[in-house]
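Comment thread on ticket #2218

A.B. wrote:
> Attaching the input chain for the structure job we discussed in standup.
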Amino acid sequence: MLSILIPTYNYVCVKLVTDLQQQAEKLECPYEILVADDASEDAFKRENRKINGIPNCKYIELQENVGRSRIRNILGRLARYDYLIFMDCDASVVSNEFLSRYMAVRNAAEVVYGGLVHPEQLPSPKVSLAFFYEKHAEPHFTAEKRALHPYKVFRTFNFMILRETFLKHPFDETITHYGHEDTLFGLVLKKEGIKILHIDNPLMNCGLDTNLDVLLKTEESLRTLYMHSEKLKDCSEILRLYGLLRDMHLLRSVSFLYHLCRPMIRRNLLGKHPNLYCFAFYKIGYYCNLAKERK
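C.D. wrote:
> Ran it. Output below, let me know if you need it in another format.
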């Protein structure tokens, strides 16, 4: 009845799988936990191979890195059961009723999104940007508030979907770089009229990126957005703001200010006390400059 699917890359997720398996045993229904490794380094593979020794669990090693969209599609095709729960490998279970809460609403919608939470205390100054950014956003993403914009706020970190629905509407494999595969997936669900039920059934995000990795991933995500801007034009705040600045003939000014302030902003964002307003400007400035260079 239930397939739990976890893509992983350079992360040890043995504890996550163990916790989920213990909960799944109490459901009294057929289940499987599949972990697909997207060509991680050998040290991570050696640890994750322990998953094969856990009942009803399987660790699958890909020989080449295929990206965030394709690896989820591979897992969906390999799954045997009707209900699929996808989650990220750096998640942590925070409730003993995590799986049972999902199964209790399995007939309420084709897609159910449980949400995510973050540590209460800053784990390390090295991850301050991700921590403060996510903690600032967290109060705005309760199930009640997510339900106001059910498709716009969809993330792949923790959701359940009917296997039949997923096979009809897989992730877009033209997105091969980091970012926006979840945005586009939510947009497809909206266009197809597939209901998303939002519930408070979060997993903990334990894999906060360092400040430098956040900037690198943000830049890669913005490049992905530019490459797929036509597909994503109705669901991106960056694209909406870019269009507004273009209509007001301010793109050149924003790009100039970004160039002028970029070294100072990066120093702030890489430090212990990053300013989220600086981060917001960095993103739109980077996108304006990117669009200018590629025209």
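A.B. wrote:
> Thanks. Noting for the ticket: The longest strand covers residues 2-8.
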